[in-house]
Structures are given as C-alpha cells and as structure tokens.
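Hi all, a correction to my earlier message: I attached the wrong file for Nonaspanin. Here's the right sequence:
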Amino acid sequence: MPVELDFVIDSMRGRGIYTKYKMLFITFILVLIFIALMNTYLTCRQLLAENHKWWWRSSSPLDLKIAK
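and the right structure:
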C-alpha cells in the first residue's frame, strides 16, 4: 500500500511517471536485496556466537518439525 501511495503522490507532483510494473519490479529487487542482507547478517551472527550446531537451526519460526 505505501508503494502505491508514493506512486500516486510522485505522479501528481510531476517527478516522474512510473508504470505499476516498474514499481513492482523495483519493489521486488529491494525485497531481494533486503532478504540477502538479512540472511548474511543472521548467518554472521550465528557464526560469531561460535555455535557449532548453527546449521541445524531452522530459518522459519513456523517450522512444523515433522522429522525428529
């Protein structure tokens, strides 16, 4: 919703007319960059904690824990 609001406000001010597909693509790229940075940060944090079993931790808090 905030992306669409920015799209409307920028179009009204005349800064630039972007199509919804361009905005969707830019948002998608920003989300991918954010996910990559968060993965890097969390992995480095686990490694700095010197936890040798860090790879067994789930990345999802909603993990079903089917295999025990």
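Sorry for the mix-up. The mean pLDDT is 72.
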